Amino acid sequence: MAEQDLYQSAAGDKPAAPTRREAYEASVRRRSNRIALTSTAVVLLSVFILVPLAPGWEAVQRSFFNGEVFAKTFPGLLNAFLLDVMIFAWCAPLIALVGLGIALCRDVRAPALFPLRLFGAVYTDVFRGLPVVLVIYLIGFGIPGLGLPRPWNSPYIWGSLALILVYAAYVAEVIRSGIDSIHQSQRAAAASLGLSDADTMRFVVLPQAIRNVVPANMNLFIALQKDVALLSFIGPVEIFRQAGVYKSLYANFTPYVGAALIFLALTIPATRYADYLMNKQNRRRR
Amino acid sequence: MKRITTSALALVLSAGTAMAMGHSDCAAGKTLVEDTLTIATGNPAYYPWVMDDNPESGEGFEAAVGYAIAEKMGYGPDMVTWVRTSFDEAIQPGAKNFDFNMQQYSITPEREAMVDFSLPYYTSAMAVLTTSAVIEGGAEPTLESLKGLKWGAVATTTAVPMLNEIIQPDSDPLLYNDNADVNAAIMAGQIDAALYDLPTALYLSAVVVDNGALLGQFPPDQSETPDQFGLLMEEGNPLKECVDAAITELTESGELAAIEVQWLAEATGVPVIQ
pTM above 0.90? Predict the structure, then answer.
């Protein structure tokens, strides 16, 4: 779709008969398509023929691709996936907000606000350097262990907070790179128009910076979709945990394959969309 | 290698157990490593099943049963090696690194379709682990009272289906990777109670969980599907009949019951859940 747009904008003005060069290029394209198609077919065929010939294939098939177990567990997995979607839904906007806040902290220029700058730097260093699971354990069991009453000790609250803290650090770095990418001359121009530092950031720098980093942030949110499953370590029975329960119930790994399919159904379209955004942006810059 | 074989043979002969030699024939050539019985346990292996995470000592219920079964099959203590596996490693397809795996695996028909189980070596009651604060808060050993609690369990155990089928709690139970995580959740007040097999629950309430207490138990003879532990083996393992013969013999001679008395605490003080 994207390539077609490009093609039309380049050649759209003159719908005349194809030139010799265009004809030649078309034939080269057709030839590479044929080769690509053949090699793909060969690879796929050999996978589908050779893998089942392996001596352990039947055992693998029985424990990973077991139709009976799949049918029994898939509805339960879908149901558990709702929890993943919910956790994602309340984490994502908070991550965006906290991330933006930290990025702004790192960009303050007033000398009196240096502690904020220091805080931003330490925050991103610490939370980008820690494994997500460790943070989830520490915050998810540690803070409620201080003696909070129910419902304030819920693993949903503190597990989500752990995800938000870690992901906000990444998002902050991405946004900061966006802010840094805005040329100094923009700030100078804004200052010459009489805008204050805060207004410059709000009306001049941020709108451009955020637009530049949308694709990079999309990648982070795709990663978040999967890391939501890590909350299962501290109790919530989301899809990954539910698959684990089925696994031990049936002594069979098929439920994990079912869970993987459900994740892919959501992450592949999201990844494609991020790619599309990125391409669009690259084209605009060229 | 040869020397090891001969010395092992000499050992068996010097022990002079003609009986054991007879069983040894059953297992001959069927084990992973010749003249060695490889038994798998958990990592870590928990009290009171294995003492101090050291199965080689033969101390702890499962360690003792392991050596007793090996003895009946004709493998002396120094012909037994221990390895560690997770649950997932035990059920994965492909070659296994153990002859049989012993870590409180409950025998269920669904699991039986994928792996082989020996005859049961222990039938466990299920018990409710909680804290004295929850009991003071009015929790009683009745199903009615249990329904209202916030539940937790280890996700890979048969406690999960039991929770959902028998207790049917009002709120969804929270599930964890292992005992340590469940205990952390109990101590953090995120769950009121957790369902365990009785020996594990007794140990956790006495030693691990602060102010831990047992609210009650579901005795095995009152359950339609009691929680029975079996040795897990690869599907179609030829060793199964030898292991089963050894367990039958241990059960009939009363040796198994004696090991149970030695290592698993009496649980008569725990009230039965109505």
Answer: no
Residues A45-56: pLDDT tens digits? Answer: 999 888 888 888
Mean pLDDT of all residues in A244-264: 92
Please report which confidence band the pLDDT of residue A15 belongs to, taking 50, 70 and 90 as the band edges. Answer: low
- Best mutation target, B92, B149, B170, B175, to test chain A (most A CBs within 10 A): B175
Cα distance between residue B199 and residue A63, in whole Å: 31
pLDDT at A33 over 80: yes
Q: Are B88 and A247 a contacting pair at CB < 8 A?
A: yes
Q: Cβ contact (<8 Å) for A250 and B94?
A: no
Tokens at B3, concatenated: 């020397």
Helices (H), A130-238: 132-137, 143-145, 155-181, 184-192, 197-199, 206-227
CATH of B126-218, one of 2.30.33.40, 2.40.160.20, 3.40.190.10, 3.30.420.10: 3.40.190.10
Instruction: Give the mean model confidence (pLDDT) for residues A157-162.
Output: 94
Element (H or E) spanning B96, and its range? none
3-state secondary structure of B43: coil
Tokens of A183: 């040329």
CATH classification number, B2-121+232-263, choose in 3.30.950.30, 3.40.190.10, 3.30.460.30, 3.90.1150.30: 3.40.190.10
Question: Could you tell me which chain A residue has the CA closest to the CA of B107?
Answer: A249
ipTM of the complex: 0.78
